Structures are given as C-alpha cells and as structure tokens.
Amino acid sequence: MKILIADDDGVTTISLAGMLEAAGHQVTTVDNGLTASELIASDGFQVVIADWVMPGLDGLDLCRFIRSHESDSYVYVMLLTGRSLADDRVSGLQAGADDFLTKPFDRAEIFARLGVAERILKMERALREANRTIERTRKYEIEIGAHIQRALLMAQPPREPSAFTFAAMNIPSSQIDGDFFDFFIHEEEIVDVFIGDAMGKGVPAALVAAGAKSYLIRGFTKLFDGRNKRALPSPVSIVQHAHDGLAKEFIAIGSFVTLCYLRLDAIAGEATFVDCGHTKTIHWDNSAQQISTLRGGNFPIGFVDHETYQELKVSLVPGDLFCMYSDGVTEASSTSGELFGIERLLGLIERHHDEEPAHILYRIREAVREHTTEWAMDDDFTCVLIRAGAVIKPWSKLEAEFPNSLSYLGSIRRFVEVAAEDCRLDRRQIEELQIAAHEATTNAIVHGQRNLPEEQLRFVAERLEDGMRLTLVYRGVPFEPTNPIEIDLENPKEGGLGLFIIEKSLNEVQYDRTSDGQNRVTMTKRSRPDS
Q1: In angstroms, rounded to a whole number, what is the distance separating the alpha carbons of residues 185 and 165?
Q2: One domain for residues 408 and 365
Q3: Which residues face 401 on adjacent strands?
C-alpha cells in the first residue's frame, strides 16, 4: 500500500518506515501536518499514519482536512498517540480517524491493524466500482429512455400540403419526462393537435404518457365511422373515452395527465379545444389583432374517477396562431430563481405573430435560453405552434445558440432545415447545407472548443434572394484551412475529409474572425449551381 507517515519524532518515523518498507509498502515521511496535507491533496495515499501532536496541523486537524476534501478513493487514517483515555479516542473518531496506534507500538499489532485497513480499503474500492457501474448503467438507461421518449412520444410536425403550418420542438431536461404531442391530419382543412404532460419524472412518467397517447389514438380509431369521413368524433368524445379507460388505473398508481386537445377546422371557421388542466393555450386572433389564452375548467385525465369533460369553441380565420406548450417553458428559471413566465411568452408571440411558426419557435427557444443562461432545466421544453393560412411576413434573419456538445448536432441540422425551407433551395440543396453545417460544427467542437465545455455555438441564418447564408460563430482555437482543399479519398488525413465535404457542399465558404476575436465560418448555399 501507499502509506504516508506524519510525525515530528525522527526515531519513531525511521523505525516505523523501515518496518513498513521491509514488508513491501511504499512509504513517504514528513515531520509536520501542513506538509502532510499538501501531499495528501495530490499524491493519492491509501493510508495515513499521523502523530496526534505535531507542528503545523496536529493529528486531529489533519484528520478533519482529509475528511473535508473529496477524493477518488478512501484514505484510511491511523493516529499515533500515547493517549489511552476514552474521551481522547472519541475526539479522534469524531475528527475522522479510523484506528489508533499506541506508543510505544507493537510490530504484530501494527501489521494486524494494517491488515484491517487493507480489507476495508479493498471493500471500499469494490463498493466504489459497483457504484460507478450502477451510475453508468443508470445513465445508459436514461439515454435509451430519452431516445425512446423522443421517438415515440414526440411526433414530427406534418409536412404535406395543408391549410395550416406547424412547428414543434422538444428539448429534454436532464432526465426523462412525461411530455408528449401528436397530430392528426383528417384533410387539408381539418387537423387535430394534442399535447400532454404526465405527472412526475423519469421512466414512470414516460410510461404513463405513452399509455395516455396510445389511448387517445385508439379512442379516435374506435369512435371514427370510416363510412363518413366528415363525421369525425368530437374532441370531447375522444378525451372522455381516454379518461374513462384510464382513470381507475391512473388513480391506482397515483398519477394523472394534463392535456390540451385542439381541433382546427378551416371549413367551419372554428377551433374546438378541450383543456384538461394543462398550461393555457395561447391564441393570436388575427381578425381582432389581439392575443389571449384559452383555458377550460376540466380536471386532468385520471385526476378524479368521474369527470364529464366540456369543450369550448373560438372562431378561426387565416393568420390565427396557436401556441401549445409544457410548463417547462414558462417555469424555466433564471439563476436568481425568476420564472420565464406566461407574460414573457405572450409578449414574444404578440410581437412576432406574423412570422413563420418555426421561426417564432426558435425565438421562444432563444428567449428561454437567455433567461436561464443555460439548458440545465428541471423540466422538458416542449412547444407546438400552428398557424392557419399562409405566412404573412417573410423572414430575413434567424439566430440560435446551441451548447458545445456533439449531442446537439441533430438540433442544429433541424435549425438549418427550418431556416432553409423558405430560401428557394430544393431538398438536395438543403441536405448539402445541413451536411456542411454538421461538419463545421463537429470541427468547432472537437478542435476549436475541446477544452471549453461551457461555451456556446451561435448560428445566424440569413435569407438571400437566391439561397441562404449560414454563419457559425464560436470562441476557441482559430482555424484557417489551407486553400485550395484537396484530399485523397482513398487515404484521407484526419480532419481533412470534413473540410473537403464542407467545400464541396457549398457555393462559398469563408473562415475568419469577428471584431471581438471569435471564430467565424460563413457558409453560402445558392439555389442555382452557377451562382
């Protein structure tokens, strides 16, 4: 074992060190507690044998120092003392000592006590490794659970031709949550959207959410008469069916689900919604040019055994906008504990109501990020926006920031896709721009920000007459590739393939620095190859 002896008695130190080294232990000696504390903080000793009385820090102070500093492994402390009173030993144990050696010490007793120390340290190492294994397994299960949650509980917004435009986003918190949403396209002019949140956290909440979502889908299928496509089951009948089927089970496990079910019917010119204790749906009324919140008085699904649900209706005209969201948006808190709140969300939507839903959604995302200063939120950020009719106001610039992590590459690709859809780029050109952004981001994180985990990546998308300009700005190591970039595809050098892909995917790419010293990669993609 690696042993440190701290004793100002030279005779004792030499005798004890010689005995331990002869037995095969690695021994370091010091003559005061202060030097001992400096070595302990850096050299990883398994056992410390300290004199009770010595200069600098005495034995008790050294014990307290050791116990107050975290270590990757346990340090077994033995106090050398001539004291035998019970009160003295109690003081030593309270300070953090594990055992005592009485002066003058006995050789057999020393090795017997070191044997005890070795057994305890071995058990402690085994326990730590078991805990690390459990933690690795737990993290892996959370990652798998989060992936399943996003794949099964978060539907992709519809893209087929419709009288409505959709945008949806889910940013998971540090743990699995119970948020979910989905879309039913009955025909171009009629769509159903629902969003919900199961009580609690973790896998149980996600399972409850999955059960609720499944029941809503099954309820629609059961109630729908396929012989008459226009005779859709009402939103309230679908919600009532889900509640009647789930209430007893939810009550039995002490859970419930908040939900908002919204049907938008452009033919009838009305929106019908059933609110089940969920966050207030925001409605921009384009005819009245005002914003309001929609809120019913129904209990959450499964909150009480018997509940008769009611639905409400509002008029629907082109330009109307609806925002459905989880409490992870409004309850996102700043470092001082101030919530983002409904008023900020209302104000943001009112100011930008005439923009593309996806762009409004990214504005909400950025506003929440700036409010919290980071994405370490306690709850999922889930938000769905739906606009009736065409976009009123074209966009010119869209900005977003992402954490310095490769796990956000998917979110960055989605940001590029959303921004590029209105830039006269076809599907292949958008994909090429996504690939270039993916490679540039990977280069920035792996090579430029490797030791800057707290930094952010900022993207600015600018609409051009014939395409889009995407700028990546980040702090870190500057990067200036040799031009022109050529590569042997049979034997690419490390990092060179990514640069080659970026250049071949774009019409223009430029690497430089901003006036405040940040790195900048400007990527331009045009709709005409010869532009």
Answers
A1: 12
A2: no
A3: 458
pLDDT for position 219: 86
Region class of 470: left (phi > 0), else alpha (psi between -120 and 50), else beta? beta
CA distance 140 to 147: 11
Q: What is the pLDDT of residue 489?
A: 47
Mean pLDDT value across residues 129-138: 83
Alpha-carbon gap, residue 232 to 191, rounded angstroms: 11
Sign of the CA dihedral 234, 240, 243, 246? negative
Reported as a single tens digit per residue, the pLDDT across 179-215 is 899 998 888 899 999 999 988 777 788 888 888 998 9
Asked if residue 377 and residue 414 are part of one domain, the reply reads no
pLDDT tens digit sequence for 502-526:
888 999 999 999 998 899 999 999 9
Q: Do 218 and 94 share a domain, yes or no?
A: no
CB 274 within 8 A of CB 261: yes
* 382 and 398 in a common domain: no
Domain count, the chain: 3
Q: Check whether residue 193 and residue 285 sit in a common domain.
A: yes
CB 201 within 8 A of CB 255: no
Q: What is the DSSP code string of 59-117? A: HHHHHHHHHHS--SS--EEEEEES---HHHHHHHHHHT--EEEESSP-HHHHHHHHHHH
φ, ψ for residue 107, nearest 5 deg? -60, -50
143 inside domain: no
Give every CB contact of residue 429 below 8 A, 6+ residues apart in sequence: 420, 467, 525, 527
Q: Which of 372, 390, 408 is the last residue of a domain?
A: 390
What's the full length of the chain, in residues? 531
Give the range of the structural domain holding residue 433, as residue numbers without chain letter: 394-531
Sheet containing strand 26-30, strands side by side: 26-30, 2-6, 47-51, 76-81, 99-102
Quote the DSSP letter at residue 298: B
Tokens of 285: 């009324």
Residue 258 has phi, psi (to 5 degrees) of -85, 145
Domain shared by 373 and 438, yes or no: no
What's the pLDDT tens digit per position in 58-68? 889 999 998 88
**Spatial contact of 157 and 166, defined as CB atoms under 8 Å apart:** yes
CATH number of the domain where residue 52 is located: 3.40.50.2300
Domain boundary among 390, 423, 455: 390
pLDDT of residue 450: 63
| CATH number of the domain within which 296 lies | 3.60.40.10
d(CA 226, CA 224): 6
